[in-house]
Amino acid sequence: MDFGRISRRHLLQGGAALTLGSALGARSALAADTTIGFIYVGSRDDYGYNQAHAQGAAALKKMSGLKIVEEEKVAETDAVEKTMESMINLDGATLLFPTSFGYYNPHMIKMANKFPKLHFEHCGGLWSEKDPTNAGSYFGYIDEAQYISGIVAGYTSKTGKLGFVAAKPIPQVLRNINAFTLGARLANPKATTQVIFTGDWSMPVKEAEATNSLIDQGVDVLTCHVDGPKTMVENAARRGAMVCGYHVNQSPLAPKAYLTGAEWNWEALYPKFVKMIAAGESIPNFYRGGLKEEIVKVSPYGEAVSAEARKHADDVKAKLTAGDYTIFKGPITDNKGKAVIASGTDRGQKDPELEKMDYLVEGVIGATS
Amino acid sequence: MTIDTADGVEAVGVAPAADPGFLQRHGTTIEYILIPGAALVGALAVFGVFVALFGKNPLDLYFYMYQGAFGTSFSWQNTLTRAAPLILTALCTALPAQLGMVIIGGEGALLIGALAATGAALALPSMPPLVVQLAVVCAGMIGGGLWIMLSGGLRQYRGVNETISSLLLVYIALAILNHLVEGVMRDPASLNKPSTREIGAANMIGSIPGTDVHWGLVFGLIAAVASYILIYHTVFGFAARVAGGNIRAAKIVGLGVGKLIMTICFLAGASAGLAGMVEVAAVQGRTNANLAAGYGFTGILVAFLARQNPLAIIPVAVLLGGISASGGLLQRRLGLPDASVQVLQGIIFAFVLASDALYGRIGFLKGKS
């Protein structure tokens, strides 16, 4: 397999790593010098965003002929540029996965221009024509999985009050809140979602406060969109509320309270990428997908999920997986009564309008600013 | 040739060998090199034991630390890039320390300096790059300077503890930054990562020719040397040190203590503001939450390790830059968690502080001084 030829200088500098790589990969059909670097913004065992990527990296470790190098808690500054260069120069990495949103521009773009023969794959960025062609961005429509969580939550909630602990009112997060709420209202048309924004991706104290305050207001099923759902899951379970997870499966943290969850499926995507490169195919620079493309998945249902809820959720999941279901289907009004998607308009998963979402749908209690 | 400096530090040019009184005559200088050096070696030894407890070979550890920080020309550039902002933020603590003030809010001045610098660049859209760059440098310094003056003023005129106020002002600075970046200064195209508009490629200050190290390093060196001259070789600096030694004595001899405090705080904040400006104009190209990467807090550590001496800040910043540069390699080669670098920093800090007790107590260095 060929990840792009690396220069003699890189070979010399990465000598030690290459020797090790060839020892490991001797039995493999893949080139022995294939080193893949993963960079995480937080801790790789955060039960959240970073762990999801680390699980993808772990899936690659099981493939022969690959050497995986990982670095965690790398800031979104020139530190990440230096980490990428260090992986290239000292480890001989030829494919890099800088996984945090803030790594994309200018940092990864700069490195992709500097090392035009190596491959860079970024999670969440919006690759455009002006960006280098050896750089790519991939992401998943995880709102599809949130929609399924919403259905389960709607059936399970006794009070009809759902809670959402969210980081920032940006399009990605709003889309999850809205999909969750639309799903819940399929099950219970009177269900509401109270949302609390904590202001940043990792604010454990505020996340705990938000969780408690939601439960104090009568919320009995919670979900979230922050980097590490652990705080919300553990606190909610301790207070006797039910939870839907996010990023990875958090059921080990709260086996009784865990209903289901919206998970990334990087364990499926990363090996797929590597096989594509090995087969000489190029990965599309702008790569997106949802349940159908196996980029996201839904956690197995917990014991508290009723048969009725399972049936309805499985039914919708099957349609989404087949690719013939639209979540954002007009008419949809926002929570101020304004029509945001007109009757008869279907906004499918790839609709660019959804990438600019700046509203909360009817049924969400909260404000974007 | 020896140069006597005001506080007894001597720089040795040619070592007069075979002089029986050498150790005694240069006792203070030798102490200043020997004691921190021994503290560092001791800290590394303890860290080696710590790593050995995890079943890793300490010799590998030292080798990778050397390789990652100073082993190749790339490693040197990595180290110096990381050291550059630390020199500037360390001055934010070291300068007020001459007056006996403990300012730990360099992070806030960095953020405000970055905001001011970005604002200046965006306010001058059609000016020639040189004019914009000058404005950006001035705005960064003034922004940061005024921010730390707030703490100085609160201390001098309202009796508020400057340590607490400068720390709390960090969170206010971060809130202002987030508010502006997510509000009036937001680039509408920055959907999922609220950011200001870019200051423009032409206005970026770029790297030192022939290297990947940005100009922040040169700014840092100039600022550190200038601070050293100001503190130890000017009347103003002498007055500051008198006030720092005994504020009542300073008032009795008629020194304008208020003016000293405000000026020093301005210069301190200007240094950290300059670091923020460099992050914008040499690294990120715009302002967003990425700027809060903790350089201001690491700067406090650097200043204390350097015993608040502006010149000593330079090697200490390079040392900590090197530790952070090699941290990645420790994660990748030895599988150590990121926190191990913080453990090492903590051990070094403890050793250096404890070693303070040794000054003037080493028998063979005592004598005729």
Structural summary, described in words:
The complex is a heterodimer of chains A (369) and B (369). Chain A is α/β, with parallel strands linked by helices and 369 residues long. Chain A folds into 2 domains: 8-140, Rossmann fold (3-Layer(aba) Sandwich), CATH 3.40.50; 143-263 and 296-365, Rossmann fold. Chain A has 11 helices and 17 strands. Chain A has helices spanning 8-13, 15-25, 49-61, 78-91, 104-114, 143-156, 171-187, 204-216, 230-238, 266-278, 307-322, and strands at 34-39, 66-71, 93-98, 119-123, 135-140, 161-166, 192-197, 221-225, 242-247, 258-264, 286-289, 296-298, 328-329, 332-333, 339-341, 346-347, 364-365. The longest helix of chain A is centred in the middle third of the chain and has 17 residues, at 171-187. With 369 residues, chain B is mainly alpha-helical. Chain B has a domain at 86-334: Orthogonal Bundle (ABC transporter involved in vitamin B12 uptake, BtuC). Chain B contains 14 helices and 2 strands, in the order ββαααααααααααααα. Chain B has helices at 22-25, 27-53, 58-71, 73-97, 106-123, 129-158, 162-181, 216-233, 235-245, 247-252, 257-284, 295-305, 310-334, 339-355, and strands spanning 2-4, 10-12. Chain B has a two-stranded antiparallel ribbon. In chain B, helix 5 (106-123) packs antiparallel against helix 6, helix 5 runs parallel beside helix 7 and helix 8 runs antiparallel to helix 11. The longest helix of chain B is centred in the middle third of the chain and has 30 residues, at 129-158. Chain B is globular. Mean pLDDT of chain B is 89; it is low at 1-14. At the A-B interface, strand 2 and helix 4 of A face helix 4, helix 11 and helix 13 of B.
